[in-house]
Amino acid sequence: MKRNISIPVVVAFAVTIGSTNAIAQSSNGVAQPSAREEAYRHIAAAKKAAGYEISDLYDHTCVRLMIGASMPFGRVPAPDNSRDYKKWHEEPVKAFDNLYYVGEKMQWGGSPSAWAVTTSQGIILIDTDFSESVQDEVVDGLKKMGLNPADIKDIIITHGHADHFGGAAYLQDTYHPHVLMGGPDWDLLESGVGGGRGGGGPKPKRDITVVDGQKLTLGEETITMYVTPGHTQGGLSVLVPVTDHGTPHLAAIWGGTGMQYSAVEYNKSAQRFRDIVNKAGADVMLSTHSQLDKSDIKLRLVEKRKPGDPNPYVVGPKVVQDYLTVAVECSAAAVLLPEEYKGYLGRGGR
User: Fold this and answer.
1) Which stretches of 157-235 are assigned E, i.e. beta strand?
2) Domain of residue 282, CATH code
3) How far apart are CA 323 and CA 274, in angstroms?
4) HSE of 11 in the Cβ direction (CA atoms, 13 Å)?
5) What's the burial of 325, exposed, middle or buried (CB within 10 Å: 0-12/13-18/19+)?
6) Would you say residue 291 lies in a domain?
7) What is the pTM of this model?
8) Which of 32, 164, 216, 219 is the most buried (most CB within 10 A)?
9) pLDDT tens digits along 201-228
10) Per-residue pLDDT tens for 31-53?
C-alpha cells in the first residue's frame, strides 16, 4: 500500500499587516487616516471582493466584527433543538470523482463539514463532525456511497474544536486510522480547556503532529497541509487534488474561518495561504462549515447536475483568491478595531 507522510524543512517567514503603519503621522506633518477610517477601508475592500460567492464569509468576519457585542458571539445563538437528528442530518453527496461530502446539514450557521477523499489505497477524511453525528454522517454516509468506512486510513483534523474532532475518537477506536492535527491543537485537547463549539466530549489519542507544508500521500493522492493559526493556534489549511469527470482541479480548504485565537495571526495566515493557493492554481474553494463555501446550496446543485453542466464547486482561481482576500481584509480591520474585536469574541468591553 502506497502511503507516505513527508515532513518538509521548516523555513521561517514574516508577514506584516500593511495597514498598521498607516495610522501614524507622516514625516511632512500631514495627518494620516485614523485607525477607524483605515479599518473601514479594509471592510469596504472585503465587501468588494466578496460579491455573492463569498458573501457568507464576509458576514462571518467583517459584519460579525461590526456587530460586536450586540449579539452573543456576533450571531443568533443556536436553538435549543439544534442537535436534534432531524435538524442536522444530511445525506452524503459525491461532489467530485474522488471527493464526498459527509458533513452535517446547514441549519443555523454552525454546522460542520466533513470531506472524504477516496484513493486506490483507502480514504482520507478531513474532519469528523460531532461525536453524536459521526455514525450517521460519516460511517453510514460512506456506506450509502458504496464505500467502506474501514478503509479510512488517515483523518486530518483542521482544528481542535469539538464539531471537527468530535467523531475522531470513535473512528480511531473502531477503524484504527492515523489522526493528524496541529501541535498546539493537540495540546488544547489534552489540556481539557479546549473543545470549542459543542463543548468537550470524547477526544482522539494523540497521534501525528502536522508541521507546516507536510504532505500526506495515500495511493495516488497527495494532500498538502499548512499550519495557519488564527481560528485556533494550530489550525490547518489544506490543498486537495480532485477530478471532475477526469478533469483535474485543485481544492483549497481554509481551515478555520473565525478569528477566535488572534486577528493578527489570522491576517498573517490568510495572506500567506492566499499566496500559496495563487501559486498552486487552486480553482475550488471549500470550507469546514457548509454555509461558508455555499455547500448548503451547491450540494443541491450537484445532485441535480445533468451531463455537461458545470460543477458548482469549480469557481476559478480568482474567486479562490477573493475568498482569502476577504479573510485578509476583515482581519486587518479587526486589528485596527480592538474594542469591536472584543465584541466579536463575545466579551463585550471586558
Assistant:
1) 178-182, 208-210, 214-218, 221-227
2) 3.60.15.10
3) 9
4) 3
5) buried
6) yes
7) 0.90
8) 164
9) 789 999 999 999 999 999 999 999 999 9
10) 567 999 999 999 999 999 999 99
